[in-house]
Hints:
The complex is a heterodimer.
Chain A: H1 2-12, H2 15-38, H3 55-58, H4 63-70, H5 72-92, H6 96-102, H7 106-142, H8 153-184, H9 187-208, H10 217-225, H11 234-258
Chain B: E1 5-16, E2 19-30, E3 34-38, H1 45-52, E4 60-65, E5 68-69, E6 80-83, H2 95-106, H3 112-119, H4 135-147, E7 153-157, H5 165-180, E8 184-189, H6 192-198, E9 201-206, E10 209-215, H7 216-222, E11 226-231, H8 237-246, E12 251-254, E13 257-261, H9 265-276, E14 281-287, H10 291-299
Parallel strand pairs in B: 3-8, 3-9, 6-7, 7-8
Antiparallel strand pairs in B: 1-2, 1-4, 4-5, 9-10, 11-13, 11-14, 12-13
Helix pairs in contact in B: 3-4
Amino acid sequence: MWNVIRAELTKLRRPSLALSTLLAVTFVTGLITSVLFLLVDSPSGNGERGVRIGRDVLSLASGASLSFSNSAGLLGIVALCIFAAQTAQEYTYGTLRNLLVRQPSRIKILIGKLAAMKLFAIVMVAVSGLVGIALSYLFAGMKDVSTTLWSTPEARSAVIRGFINVLIATIGYGIFGMILGLLFRSPISAISIGVIWNLIIEGLLSAFVTNIDRYFPGQLLSTVAVGGTDKISYQYALITSYSFLLGGLAVVAFLFKKRDVAN
Amino acid sequence: MSSPLALDVADLSKKYGDRMAVSHANFEVPMGSICGFVGPNGSGKTTTIKMLLGLISPTTGSGHVLGESITQPEKYLPYVGAMIEGPAFYPALTGFQNLTVLAKLGGFSTDLIQGLLDLVGLGDRGDSKYKTYSLGMKQRLGIAAALLPNPKLLVLDEPTNGLDPAGIHEVRSLLRKLADAGTTVFVSSHLLSEIEMISDHLVMLRLGKVIFSGKTSDLLAKQQPVIVAVPEKVSDLDKLMQIAAAAGHKAIISDSAVHVTGTSDFSATLNRAAFDAGIVLASLTPVRASLEDTFFEMTGE
């Protein structure tokens, strides 16, 4: 297993992938943080779907990690793309046969890949957290948001909680990408279907159909990232989303184990 | 006592829908031999190799690799090096990094990599990205990857595709050197002349069926030698063919020459008979049947 993880990390560490991912993560977090703080006085809102988040909320102990938590959806899309591409490319490059000759246990390959990508996701989320908190301090000064409560023990535990929740959500999106990668065996198909599903289908249906977001994995993972909402509890979101994902993963793992490696 | 076997396959078949890609294949490959696995494109070579490496499940039949059943590839794959369907690597990684991925995955030392790159002639290009490699360089990297486990059995699928003549010669020498050191080499190709030069054992496949399995020398010995007689005048071809046929030898006209089945002893007789009939021969050459000729004769193609 450890051999698979080491091999996968060699691929994930390549500068073109690692740097572009970190740039994307920095950009996404920077964008969400700047919208949250710089548009604090905007009548059209500064939160998701036009929600207004005022100075009073930003000044709370959780204020420093709020932008980071709100970035989870987009961080998840980045993770979905990476997990899907890293899985499906083995088929398009034909490298799967090399991997399986060196490690015949297909389940070990799958678990090792997932573990390596989880480590990658930890780095992604950590970078996002650092960027989000640093920019929050910067923008708070510019927009007269009080940061007194941001250095309290309560704020530190909010950051840790936020980190764990965003990580769980990001990995969940990644697993979704991996499922699509194994199913479609093509990075382009897997990524486009994953992005369209999460950003368009789930987003649109959730906006128009009441309570349907209770059944969409992407929406539920966003709920996990922010620690639950008034409508959907954290426990429900976590258990339901991961039940979908682990069920899907079990199905594609079975297919992966049984399918002939034809290309 | 029979020699131990690197590969043995019994009644192995693979069916895709209504099509039998491999049909009831039976063959054995002795340990330490260079075995050519030949057949035209689409004859089932790669499918068979994939079944031997655990990448495809057989529809029926059984097989053993290095004495272990093909249903348990984890028992023998650590001792097997393989390049299947040509080289396949990550374009954005260098040659060295690509081998590092496979070395780490297989639990082999990465210290071996530079030596292998040197061995296949990529010593100074290991730091270049795979996507910048020529087809020949990619093929060499594939061979280096196959050698990573210091294999007891080396399975190479069309290893000389894309190589220039010097590269083909190098690969041939390398395979001979590996076999001399005790590695069994199972090499597939549709280029029969190339296989004839290196293999001491042969498995011949056509339309998914094994049509020969055994020593290359045994196969070639079964073939009648041929004398190729070229008359000075093309108009004498028919007459020359009749002379050979009258002497009880099978003769055909092909490429402005008469091909007469018979040993070199008959050359002098044919020459004398042609001279007596007023035919001047421009050349008279005894030819050993090639693997290609044998293959076409066996398959009737």
